[in-house]
Structures are given as C-alpha cells and as structure tokens.
Specification:
By secondary structure, the protein is α/β, with parallel strands linked by helices. The strands form three sheets. An eight-stranded parallel beta barrel has the order 7-8-9-10-11-12-13-14, surrounded by seven helices. Strands 1-2-4-3 form a four-stranded antiparallel sheet, sandwiched between helices. A two-stranded antiparallel sheet has the order 5-6. The radius of gyration is 23 Å and the shape is elongated. The two termini are about 40 Å apart. Bound molecules: 6-hydroxymethylpterin-diphosphate (HH2). The site of 6-hydroxymethylpterin-diphosphate has 21 residues, from strand 7, strand 11 and strand 13.
Length: about 400
C-alpha cells in the first residue's frame, strides 16, 4: 500500500494568475512585500504568478536568486530582508518559457527546491500558453531550438537584396536553396517595407507572391509565411495554403487579417511598428522604448486573440528598425528578455539592418553578415524562438551553437 507523502511547503505551489495583473498584485501584497517591491515586480510585466506558502527563509532566498537568474523574480515578505521570522509566503513571477529554465535550476538545489520544481510543473501543466506554435497543421515545438525563417523578397526594391529574386523562377530557386541550407520557414514578401518605401497595389503584390506560395506548398515541407499588411493578399495566400501571415503593421488596419488567419487555423506574426513604412521614422518618440513597445504590442496581440487566433498560433515581434532609431534598437535587443516574457512565441528580424551598419560602420548591407550573426545570437540567448534572416547557412550554424548554450 502507498503511504501518503507527508505534507511539505512545496505542496502549496499553485498558479494564482496568468495575464491578470490585478490578481498578481493582490497576491504579492498578501505576502507582505513592500510597496516599492510590489511596484518593481509589477513593472516587469511577467505573465505568470505562482504562489507558495510558508516557505522556510533559506529556501525563499534561494528561490528568488534562481528566479532572477531564469529571467523571472520572486516577491516575499519585507521580513525576509531583515531575517525576521522563520517562513514567508512567496509569489514566483515568471513566463511560460522561463518556467522551464527555472524548474531546471530549482532541480539542482537543496532545501526542498527539487520538490518545488515538480510541484510547479504539475501546478502549471495544461493551464498556460501552449509550448508549441501551431500553423495550420504544422507544429513547431518551442523551447527546444531556434527556427530559421529565410527571407524571400520578391520585390525590385528591398533594402539589401531588391531585384535579386524578382522573377518567379529566381525566387523559387532561392527558396529551395534556403531550405537546403536549413531554413524551417520561408517568408515571402511582395512589398518592401524599408524606411520611405512606396506602397505596392494589392493586385501587384498578390501577383508577385502567389505563384511562389503555390509552388512551395506543393513541392516542399516548409512552413510558408507571407509578409503582407494587406487582407486581400493574405486572403489569396491563405486560400493557396500558406501556413503563416507576417503582418509588419501589427493589425494597424484592424483585425481582418487576424480573422482570416483564425478561419484558416494559420499562425499570425504581429509586429510592432508605429505609422507606415513611409512615415514610421517620424514616430520614434518613446518614454521607455521597451515598455512602450511591449504595451503597444500587447494591445495588438489581444486584438488578434479577440478575432479568434488562439494564443498558440500567435507570434510577437518587437519590429527592429521599424519606428525605432539605432539606439532604441540596441536598447530593445539588450532587454529582449522583457519582450520574450510576454509569453508568446518570439520572432526577431535583425538581419543586415541599418543598426548593424551603424554599430560596425559597414555601409554595404550584404557585408553585414558577421554583425547580423552576433545580434541574432544575442537575441536567441534572450529568448527569440524564430529568427528572420537573409543568410540562412551562416545563421543556421550560429543558431545551433547558441541553442547548445541556451538549453
Ligand atoms: N523586417 C523586414 C521585413 N519584414 N517582418 C518581421 N516580422 N520582422 C522584421 O523585423 C521584418 C519583417 C525588413 O527586412 P527585409 O525584408 O529584408 O527588407 P524589405 O522590407 O526592404 O523588403
């Protein structure tokens, strides 16, 4: 006969809130955390709060250390800092992705933390955002490795490769080369979004991309993504079987693209940008660029979710270079963990961008590969799940090394 395990403080671990700031704050207050501590915790915007009661002080201190090192934090009573009392309630703040890293760290520690790791796992199982990105029958498990999205610009004027793949034959050959080099996703765009670029009529954009979408759906296993802001183009490409729509306007024109993705069960990338590519660089006034981007992007993610796209099919992208100057892009990259802590699958596009040119002094965008790889590696270490790149072979190799270090 099984003997019941005697009660242990870690058995009280329970998920008290997910994406509910008020409920998180209420639980933090109940631990006896200071007002200043509460404000610091809430400002982190971590979506997941796990409460554990009556934790011995030495365990609580270790939990906080490990939580911070895994990209989260832990709130507890002010008495802990003064080493008063024997036990404290704690609220562990984390994100779905950081949770795995946190559990792995706790598992290696004494003072009941190993047992807490398994209690946290069972308390959160089935309650939090899917750890798999679903794109119309394609499943991309997250947290295991980084996915490479190869850029296919079927445009005459893209900033670094405009005109190179403008005929359908050249575009398809380039897509096949990128797949052979290790791309998981091909992102097909028929309209340049470089600063100041001219808009392309929907009919022309559709003509540029549709044949390529059809060819890749019929002849490859790739996840096929279409980089468009136009519902008409998204609609035609989804009809042709595209798995993902990459909307750099972040649903600026309303939820129509999200509804189309929801009906097709396709994934949707929601990117942060202010204004349009022609005027976005007039909108670079931020208070705290990272906080502002997260707040503005969250509102658009919620719009997508309310149009019916499940959270497990949503991808967030802070939009490097879009309505952000070089200093703001650098700040965003160095604090990318805060964006990944939103809890959505995270895509970043830094490849060959002007910020890399600004940092390195390299004018020729095609010569910015080493700088792009460094930026991409940093992004992976800070939580990126998908990287949008021009140079697939080089990026796939660098991503493998970063993955080996990250996981
Ligand atoms: N960057 C560009 C285009 N689309 N989509 C997402 N999600 N994230 C990005 O950072 C992003 C994007 C700009 O790069 P590129 O496609 O090379 O150039 P152009 O817009 O001139 O075609």
């Amino acid at each position: 006969m099984d003997t019941p395990r005697s009660a242990h403080w870690s058995d009280t671990a329970r998920l008290v809130s997910y994406r509910n700031a008020l409920e998180t704050a209420r639980n933090i207050e109940q631990t006896g955390c200071s007002r200043a501590g509460l404000e610091i915790m809430m400002a982190k915007g971590l979506p997941l709060a796990i409460r554990v009661d009556k934790v011995p002080l030495r365990s609580a201190i270790l939990i906080k250390q490990e939580a911070i090192s895994a990209g989260g934090d832990a709130a507890y009573s002010v008495d802990v800092a003064a080493l008063r009392g024997e036990r404290t309630d704690i609220v562990l703040l984390t994100s779905p992705r950081s949770l795995q890293a946190l559990a792995a760290k706790l598992e290696r520690q004494p003072f009941g933390l190993k047992r807490l790791a398994s209690a946290i796992k069972s308390a959160t199982e089935g309650h939090i955002l899917s750890q798999t990105l679903s794109a119309r029958g394609k499943s991309l498990p997250l947290g295991g490795r980084t996915y490479i999205m190869g850029i296919l610009n079927a445009t005459p004027d893209s900033f670094s490769d405009g005109g190179s793949y403008f005929t359908e034959k050249d575009a398809i050959a380039h897509a096949e080369r990128m797949l052979a080099e290790g791309a998981d996703i091909i992102d097909i765009g028929g309209e340049s979004t470089r600063p100041g670029s001219a808009p392309v009529p929907a009919e022309e954009e559709r003509r540029r991309v549709l044949g390529i979408v059809r060819h890749l759906i019929a002849n490859s296993d790739a996840v096929v993504s279409v980089d468009t802001m136009k519902p008409e183009v998204a609609d035609a490409c989804l009809e042709a079987g595209a798995h993902m729509i990459n909307d750099v306007s972040g649903l600026a024109a309303g939820p129509r693209i999200a509804s189309l993705c929801a009906s097709a069960k396709a994934a949707l990338v929601v990117m942060h940008m202010r204004g349009t590519p022609s005027d976005m660089m007039l909108h670079t006034e931020y208070g705290d660029v990272v906080k502002d981007v997260i707040a503005e992007l969250s509102a658009r993610m919620e719009l997508a979710a309310s149009a019916g796209v499940p959270e497990g099919s949503l991808v967030a992208d802070p939009g490097f270079g879009f309505s952000k100057d070089a200093a703001q892009n650098i700040e965003l990259l160095s604090r990318l963990r805060e964006v990944s802590n939103m809890g959505y699958a995270l895509l970043v596009g830094l490849s060959r961008k002007s910020t890399i040119g600004r940092i390195t002094g390299v004018q020729d965008a095609k010569a910015r590969v080493p700088g792009s790889l460094a930026a991409m590696t940093a992004a992976i270490m800070k939580g990126a799940d998908i990287v949008r790149v021009h140079d697939v072979a080089e990026s796939a190799q660098a991503a493998k090394v970063a993955d080996a270090l990250r996981y």
